[in-house]
Design goal:
Number of strands: 13
Oligomer: single chain
Shape: globular
Radius of gyration: 28 Å
Helix content: 40-55%
Structural class: alpha/beta
Number of helices: 21
Largest sheet: 4 strands, antiparallel
Distance between the termini: 31 Å
Length: 585
Amino acid sequence: MWYRPGRTRWENGGVTSTYDVLLGRLSSAFDAISEGTDPVLRTSDRSDYQANGVMALAKSRGENPRDTAQKVMEQLDLAGIAEVEVAGPGFLNLTLTTQFLNDQLRTLISDERLGVAGSTGRTVVIDYSAPNVAKEMHVGHLRSTVIGDALARMYRFRGDTVIARNHVGDWGTPFGMLIEHLLDLGEDEAIASLSIGDLDSFYRGARAKFDADDAFKERSRARVVALQGGDAETRRLWQILVDESVAYFAEVYRALDVTLTPSDVVGESYYNDMLDDVVRDLDALGLLVESGGALCVFPEGFTNRDGEPLPLIVQKRDEGFGYAATDLAAVRDRVSNLHADEILYVVGAPQGQHFEMVLAVARAAGWLPAAVRCEHVAFGNVLGPDRKMFKTRSGETVKLIGLLDEATQRADVALALRPSAMTESERRHLATQIARAAVKYADLSTDRQRDYVFDLDRMIAFEGDTGPYLQYAHARLRSIFRRLEHPWDPSATTFTLNDRAERELALGLVAFPEAVDAALATLQPHRLSGYLFDLAQRFTAFYEACPVLVAPEPQRSERLALCELTSRTLALGLSLLGIEAPEQM
RNA sequence: GCGGCUGUAGCUCAGCGGAUUAGAGCAUCGGUCUACGGAACCGAGGGUCGGGGGUUCGAAUCCCUCCAGCCGCACCA
């Protein structure tokens, strides 16, 4: 019961998932008694599935739940699909028939999507990662990047058009000092410094001069004015900073195996030309109020610490625009130009109130139709061992690339200790795959809303609920197939599932669509992670109990088919999380 | 002060549109090795689900309250 599907269902060319078959039959029976009753179907540890909807139904009708259960049973047609019995106070426990499981498994074997339904092709804008130009990517960017990318992959797999938007911080007052610093270093020197990925020291260099040198500070201020005024030379220098940074981000994304590309970068500056319109249109709508010299909107229901209405500051006293203006412009752009059906912001939880306000204003202004789903996919912090924000010993932010390097190093050391025919470069490559899996899985396997403690030792372990464990399970499966000497056709398989471990594995396989649906419906990748770990455990239990290659036919073929499906499910599931499944480890 | 999030086994975490005996991983202890990868598997101990009230036939789950921690709360994004 660690995953629960959403309620929205999609079509998949005639393939109906096990969950949907059961839900359909149950819904008909419940509807016959009271239209629209949810059967509350879920997986069960008492039987294969259980339906708890009888309890609520009985309550609303003032009946004894067991009597209601009987009435549902009379309407319920699950012939050939499942045995049903009323249990406890009125639960319906469902046990799938072997025949039905066999049918479902055979369907999965011939279905590339492994039973996951596709969508009608909606347009989904996912705003994620968002590093800052001329600043290092650090652990603070990890979650947005990893979670956003996993969601992007899941949506794409479902058949939606994903428009990734990397809302990089490429504008604002710091650029005055950054450009002046660039000039001080000389362009070639500056580019060299930026391109080796040492963005932090570049930024710190600029900052130090800004704080210590009044003349530099003055130049910086003038430079900001020139930048905002559109001065061509200043603009060119700014572009150098942007280009070099974006190239560096691309390296980090490649190291992380994240699908973002430079063409997904649509930074804050992109919206500059739209900001005047935002102000003008808000004013025309009568939503704009001047307060303390700033132009604000006061959405209903927000108050500050003194209980007074809380403003969303659109234009500052100095006539500069705040990020609220940019975010509002972005919403408009995404709705009217990108034609988004859905917009997701994968941004840290602390910005919750800001997004609530922005969206409230956008809705009030009519820029965000009710039909467009718009969600803040919030996530908690990455904590260090001391349960405080993850920092280095010396209190500095932890570079993302450094984190990956360390993880790779550890994986490589662990691999080197084992006898293997791998070349050093093969081993090195494998180590990067394991390291990525470790870091990403750790992030994607807990409820995103919570903070989590970053513990490299735990996440890179091959034991337990880790990415490497799942990769290992997959690699073991692949090794079975490498030993196969003759061509083998899984489509002819008949599943008898005589061994308990075979049946448990089959039940896991058949539940894959539920897990993907649940992850998408709730925007919680950990639903899928939890499913995959459970499946891997079912597989290893099966693998211990049931010899495959040495089993007599037709058992051998059946078990091979189960292995085949498990292998494909693990690989596909991991790929939806952005995690690779190597053939060998 | 207002708002949000969090508090479940020694540790890290699932479960929280109420429902049959509260789950997992790690750690600990005890087992399994002449089968396809032991980086594995099986088993055991370990929890008054932060405290207290309430609703309910039934609450980790819903409501109220208190405690503890983290994070927001007007011109930095």
